[in-house]
Amino acid sequence: MKIYRSLLLILALVACGSSESRSEAPAATNPSTAAHPTPTYTYRVINVYPHDPEAFTQGLVYLDGVLYEGTGLEGHSSLRKVDLETGEVLQQQDLPAQYFGEGIAVLGQRIFQLTWRSHAGFVYGRERFDLQQQFSYPTEGWGLTHDGKRLIMSDGTSVLYFLDPGKLTAIGNVEVRDERGPITRLNELEYVEGEVYANIWQTDRMVRIAPKTGQVLGWVDLRDLLSAADRVRQVDVLNGIAYDAVGKRLFVTGKWWPKLFEIELVPR
């Protein structure tokens, strides 16, 4: 078991889970040192739910009482439907072994899933997870969400791309910036009440973004969310944001994390 998990860790280090080529991107700007810093938030834990510690979480969506989750690593990538309360996987579609799964979005009766370096995305039927379409894009695939009309995609840079969900072609983009400049390593995305929330890869922070302008509206410090006791086993970075638009609940987790957290943002 230890050997198996070590092999997974090696895979993660050479892929997008830990410290592969993504490390070429400069670290995200630290707003706390700016002359007029962007508002910052900490968190309050509302509920804690079990999460599959074998899930290398790349995308997360909450809709109609269940979670949809995309996982990564070549040979281990999948699309899942998950029971929030128990963490049980209710439905799963594995990706072909050559693909490294990335962000997902659920729009209407379709599920969209990106892959990392293959320039390939997939469209599934929401009910049966049946593959309906494959599409391509020129960049790497990282995070994915939607605003009800457009898909919103990240590629690890400071740019968010807007895609037509019908034609699956780019229809615009915006650079994400705070008062100190561009914010890179934008990873998993979630659309929350008119804003885009993004994990900043390899950090314990999220950023809140105005999608029209790319302006950073706030930073969220999520350090110490996963306790030292939960880190005795192998875990990776914070990644995975989901929002219950009906219940106004915000969920976060990470790659190989044994827990998923419902949190409330608290102004600092």
Calculate the mean pLDDT score and round it: 90
Q: What's the CATH superfamily, by name?
A: TolB, C-terminal domain
C-alpha Rg, in Å? 17 Å
SSE sequence, one letter per element: HEEEEEEEEEEEEEEEEEEEEEE
Low-confidence stretches: 1-34
CATH architecture: 6 Propeller
What is the distance, rounded to the nearest whole angstrom, between the alpha carbons of the first and last residues? 42 Å
CATH class identity: Mainly Beta
Helix count equals 1
The largest sheet has its strands arranged as 16-17-18-19-1-22-21-20
Q: What is the total number of structural domains?
A: 1
Query: Which band does the percent of strand residues land in?
Result: over 45%
CATH overall fold name: Neuraminidase
Sheet having the most strands: 8 strands, mixed
Q: By helix and strand content, what is the structural category?
A: mainly beta
Task: Write a structural description.
By secondary structure, this protein is mostly beta strands. It has a single domain (35-267), classed as TolB, C-terminal domain (Neuraminidase). The protein is 5% helix and 48% strand. It has 1 helix and 22 strands. It has one helix at 2-14; strands spanning 40-50, 57-63, 66-71, 78-83, 89-94, 101-107, 110-115, 120-125, 131-136, 144-146, 151-154, 159-163, 170-175, 177-178, 181-182, 186-192, 195-200, 205-209, 216-221, 238-244, 249-254, 259-267. Strands 16-17-18-19-1-22-21-20 form an 8-stranded mixed β-sheet, with no helix packed on it. A 4-stranded antiparallel β-sheet has the order 2-3-4-5, with no helix packed on it. A 4-stranded antiparallel β-sheet has the order 6-7-8-9, with no helix packed on it. Strand 4 and strand 5 form a beta hairpin. The longest helix is centred in the N-terminal third of the chain and has 13 residues, at 2-14. The termini are far apart. The model is unreliable at 1-34 (pLDDT under 50).
